[in-house]
Design a protein that fits this description.
By secondary structure, the protein is α+β, with helices and mostly antiparallel strands. It folds into two domains: 4-231, 3-Layer(bab) Sandwich (Hsp33 domain); 241-288, CBS domain Like (Alpha-Beta Complex). The chain has ten helices and twelve strands. The strands form three sheets. The chain has a five-stranded antiparallel beta sheet, with helices on both faces. Bound molecules: zinc ion.
């Protein structure tokens, strides 16, 4: 099954819901960054959230950024998404290893520690919309649940999960977000609460062969869910040699001078996809002298 994001409504529009399966995206991220298992889990959960939250945006050029600044050994992580659910991301310290927790799950909360989750929506207006909350557990799903409740006043249920194979490849990755719209009737809320209590974890559902549609059908049992869209998100980085050249040129003469060490090439590595771009001393001199 290729990566999918499904958007749905239920209970006559009082509930909106998203579910995603992003195994290929998380596998790509793991290969691009060489992440350790706990870092793959942390980044994978944030990528799963990003793909669903990206798909909540309307405009074609809208950009969502999920940024975690934290004091744990992972040192922070970042994911950006577009309105088609395409994502990219990185962690600051991709090699961090931590023993699993008592329940055998990855210690994502331990890797993140304390910190701030920022949700930045650039909707093409003058200023981006920024919401910030303190990390609650660092497990990401709980932190986003808290973010939606406190910053967007939208009660939500968020489930995110990454399951690794023994050989350290990604077995399953995905999640769901279910949100209550204003004036949601009590009986809808209690039905949803009952459903959520009885469902297995995201990775158990995916490993059991359930698709994002199936996950929504199960979590929204009794609430007449109706799928409105199905997207095929990708790990998409828009970096190019040209973008990096422009970045270097914007450094100014003094900084470019300090980069020019004899005739040695300099290599720039994209933080999001790991792609390498090489600039020769000659390239840098041309940029410095304004001939590029
Ligand atoms: Zn890139």
């Amino acid at each position: 099954m290729s990566d999918t994001v499904v958007r749905a409504y239920a209970a006559d529009g009082f509930v909106r819901a998203f579910a995603a399966s992003v195994k290929d995206i998380v596998s790509f991220a793991k290969e691009a960054h060489g992440t350790s298992p706990v870092c793959t889990a942390a980044l994978g959960r944030l990528l799963a959230a990003g793909t669903m939250m990206g798909s909540m945006m309307k405009g074609h050029a809208d950009v969502l950024t999920l940024l975690v600044r934290c004091d744990g050994p992972i040192g922070g992580l970042c994911v950006t998404a577009d309105s088609q659910g395409n994502v990219k991301g990185y962690v600051n310290e991709p090699l961090v290893m931590l023993p699993p927790k008592a329940d055998h799950h990855f210690d994502v909360g331990g890797a993140l520690g304390n910190g701030i989750l920022s949700v930045i929506r650039d909707l093409g207006l003058k200023e981006p919309y920024v919401g910030e909350v303190e990390l609650q557990t660092g497990e990401i799903a709980e932190d986003l649940t808290y973010y939606f409740a406190s910053s967007e006043q939208t009660p939500s249920v968020v489930g995110l999960g990454v399951l690794m194979n023994k050989d350290n490849t990604v077995a399953q990755a995905g999640g769901f977000i279910i949100q209550l719209m204003p004036d949601c009737p009590e009986d809808v809320i209690s039905t949803l609460e009952q459903n959520i209590k009885s469902i297995p974890s995201v990775t158990e559902m995916l490993a059991g062969g359930m698709s994002p549609q199936d996950i929504l059908a199960k979590t929204l049992t009794g609430l007449n869910p109706e799928v409105t869209d199905t997207l095929s998100p990708k790990y998409l980085c828009n970096c190019s040699r040209d973008r990096y050249a422009k970045g270097l040129m914007s450094l100014g003469k003094k900084d470019l001078d300090s980069l020019i060490q004899g005739e040695e090439d300099i290599e720039v590595v994209c933080r999001f996809c790991g792609k390498k771009y090489t600039f020769s001393a000659e390239d840098l001199r041309e940029m410095r002298d304004g001939n590029a």
